[in-house]
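Dear Dr. V.,

Thank you for agreeing to look over these. As mentioned in my earlier message, I'm a first-year student in the group and I'm still getting used to reading structure tokens, so any feedback on how I've presented them would be very welcome. I ran two proteins. I've put each sequence directly above its structure. The first is here:
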Amino acid sequence: MKRIVYYLDSSHRGITALEQVASFAAQRQAELRAVFIEDQNLMRCAELPFGREISLMTGRARPLRVDSLRRHLRLAHDRYRGCLEQLSRRQPLRWSLEVSHTADHDYRRTAATEEGLSEEELEDVLLVTDHPGESPVADIPRWIRFPGAVMLFWQGGRQFSLLLLYCDQIDSAPRLIESARRLAEREQLPLICLLPAKSDELPLLRSIIENRLPDSTVQEVSEWQLRHLLTLTEGQPYLLLLSKESDLLQEGSVLKSANACLLLP
């Protein structure tokens, strides 16, 4: 994990999340690339004569003005920069802060031009955190457009004490297993391999894992058992490793029980 990409907007909740992400990056000696989104669709709305915003304090509507919106975005950007400068004085943190004017986050545009990316850029990890009452699981189809790995990280930034590898695709299995092995060695964490009990490819998947990870624990699980397992291990913070091609992503509700999930390309 050489560089972590994290997207910011003008939300007041962003500072707390940024502090957690910066701490996570510093602990792993990874560079933090923060990208502040200036939503151009919002700017266009402010240019319309009937554009309105609702005050959170009074509930009243007031004109949405371009100059006040720009000032609000500039203040938010400066607030994030100040936060990163303070954090880098407290801990060893390499960081950058850039602005994107793409309304739907530039990882969609980046994914479309993946052939032009450098090897370093393809090793970037997109970090997605949650907000109270929300979960990044609902946006999985959007997140997996990012060309590198994606970490869904929605339990307050706790340290991991266990790696869970869920392997259900033959084509991606060797690459996924090797990534899990390297991560377990680097973080010095125990690794448990989970296989779909009802898969027709179960014997072959088991054979691949036993050949490449002879000392690991292998467990066959149904979808219900996996959901139950993820809930039971909440007291022991873990990282669930999946391929972006995993069938499990079609059933996002299973992942809501996990405290963190790393989707690998």
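The second protein is here, in the same arrangement:
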Amino acid sequence: MKGTIKIASLFLVTLFAIFIIPKNIIQPVHGRSTGSAAFCPNWYDPTQDPPGELQLAQVATEHIAYFMNQVYDYSILAINDSAIVPSYRAAIQYLNCEDEVAFFSKGHRDLWPDEIYDHMALFDHYGNEVRDSEDIYPYSSGKFRFVFLWHCETAEMYPSTDDEGMPYCFTHNNNMVLYGQDNGYNVFLGWQEGSPAFVTIIDQQYPWGYWQYAHWVYLFFAAMSWGWTVEGALSYACNIIYSQDFTCTPLYYWLKVWGCEDICWPLY
């Protein structure tokens, strides 16, 4: 297990050294306040988390927060070994005071209420449910322009009919289309069915053979911090790993993008 963690972390550290990140390419818009958050509560589940996943997810989330911090005025980093992990509700409520928000989270999810299961909840660091209509929707708004939830099935339950599902409850936008271009002011990225572990080796990559999903997410967020659009960042990461654009890879049928793919950080 320790060898797996060291190798996975080494790949990311090496990648971080190779892809040098230009700082402050995007300047904050004068008179506007922007905020971001990178959450890795990743409540440990031995039936779903492979060896090394928690440690690698933490390293990757730290890098994501770094990229966000290059662009946004205020950033929250919540990872497993933080002395105090802020609650989703507190973070969302605080960020909602900003003019524009970017939000990333990695972890697991649950369905509720019992026997009906028509709503979704994210698990926080302590294994508590963060419910869509109770803990997210009342404290968020359309100012959550960019949301990426690396939790299983988070792209589902949309459009919303009863304040259910993560895409609507984070963005308050029920008019987002799948892989939209020039379509509104919000974008939500989530998974159809299960989300892959960061330590998992990516299938059908070419011409290499050692890329993990942690590498892909690193490359995607690096490109976002350089000022690329969501569409451009997706294809940037996929061209390096698959040697193909996003639309030609298996991810296209698994990672769903609701809303405007032309959005960049922050939205001008």
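From my reading of the second output: DSSP finds seven helices and nine strands in the chain. Residues 33-192+255-259 form a domain with the Rossmann fold fold (CATH 3.40.50). Does that match how you would interpret it?

Kind regards,
E.
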